[in-house]
Design a protein that fits this description.
Blueprint: H1 7-21, E1 32-33, E2 38-43, E3 49-53, H2 56-60, H3 78-89, E4 99-102, E5 109-117, E6 120-127, H4 136-152, H5 156-171, E7 175-181, E8 187-194, E9 205-206, H6 213-219, E10 225-227, E11 235-239, H7 259-267, E12 272-280, E13 283-292, H8 300-345, H9 350-356, H10 358-364, E14 369-374, E15 377-382, H11 387-400, E16 404-407, H12 421-424, E17 426-434, E18 437-445, E19 450-455, E20 462-464, E21 470-472, E22 480-485, H13 494-541
Antiparallel strand pairs: 1-11, 2-3, 2-6, 3-11, 4-5, 5-6, 7-8, 7-13, 8-9, 10-12, 12-13, 14-15, 14-18, 16-17, 17-18, 19-22, 20-21
Helix pairs in contact: 4-5, 4-8, 5-8, 8-10, 8-13
Length: about 550
Amino acid sequence: MQSLIMKSLQTITSALVNLAVGDHEPLHLIGQIQPHGVLLALQASDLTITQVSENTQAYLGLAPDAFLGQPLAHVFAAATVQHITALLQGDAFEAAKPFPVTFLAGAAVYLVTAHRTHDLLVLELEPMPSVEAAQPDQFYDRLKPALVNIKRAATLTHFFQQVAQAVRQLIEFDRVMIYRFATDHSGMVVAEAVRPDLERYLGLHYPAADVPSAARNLFTRNWLRNIPDVNALPVKLMALAGVEAPLDLSQAHLRGVSPCHLEYLRNMGVAASLSIPILNQDQLWGLIACHHSTPKLVSYGTRSLCELLGQLISVEFVLRQERAFRHDLEQVRQIERAFRQDLQQCPDQIEMVLQRKQTSLLKLVQAQGMAIVLGEQVLLVGQTPSQEDVQPLLTWLLATQQEVFHTDSLVEHYPEAARFKERGSGVLAISIRVRHMAYQILWFRPEQSYAVNWAGNPNDAVAMDAEGVVRLSPRRSFALWQEVVRDHSLPWQSLEIEAAQELRHSLLIAALESSQAALQKAAIRAERANQAKSEFLANMSH
């Protein structure tokens, strides 16, 4: 139900946001980093530094110019250069752990994470004081209670609530939310662990523009996004003359933040944030969104735990989804097997089988009403529109020439449905034509009018400037804003649509067999009639 959004809102948010996306520089090419670390980019072939962040003086005691064009051996200690060279020669570079390094110019120790991008090696450095010196067993001790509670959760609702509480205990933020994306990319808070004195966001919806497509794509490539201080000044990157810029920062933890997103967080009263993606089969299902009211840098050790927890949660979520799907699939298959067996036993009595299986056919797709059509005969079962309304709908469906038709808002395709939306806002239909006979089954779902609670008016997610250009706009108000959804039923799930397709296949085979049996009987009758005629004429001539 949460995925149903009025068409007017979809037009205002999704369509306009698509227009605005092209107006923004891709986030992975933002050309700046956050100031809590230093970034160096090197040619992987010879380890020459080609790009560097402009804050090296504050951290390393040397101006950026002192690094550009220099080989790594002129900057790092020999042991560090040997370690990086060995990593580049290995097969498991991307899985390499962060490692401490020292510079020739000073005694300070930094923790370095490394990744490849095209033909470059990107090094990100953070001062060691901001990093926990925890042992592996300490990491396990911190994770174990959370994993036990998450594993014991009986339902998905309880599962996500345990996840939110576990992450909040790890990072000690004011608020941790589980944010689920709908098919239209809007989102909803489905679980929340929050400081008791703060307003709760549980159950609130957010428009697609709040997490635009560019940001969603980056979450599928990086397991963590940390913004320690939304008011910190970004640091630009400086490139060697002739080097192609800006640098691809898709995998960089220090990657700078869009000004629009920073303003959005400020408008929410958020000073620091941390986001962990939840993936379902490599697709972004949702986020673990963490907010804090004061600046806070989460240490590397804790961030590593959050990354690991995010991966484990994604795996557990997929397993739970698969178990639920298999359970539903087996129930559907049981109904299909029983129906198919009856059709096989009585292929020339399709009408009788369909009438006898009314309850099972409704349960097959979780519908409240059904119309069974055999030629000119229409049988209505359960909550359905009237015969007068169903007949023209049948004609319209046949004219569409769709073997399987489904919608959760029939009125958008067939305006006459407004007369009977209380009983038939959603329709799933299968159609078969065998010779001059038409077979149709229509399943109906009633309208589900309800209020969607938005965190602020979603229409404010985009704005038009004086030149008429549509741009993303960080919303300023997050006060409860309600939108009433009408003319929709509960959406048809993919398993239900597949079940209808399988049923159509079984019905088609039975219809063809019935038609063939009828033709054979007609042929036998014709042959007998001809034989009787011949005998009659023979007797007459005799």
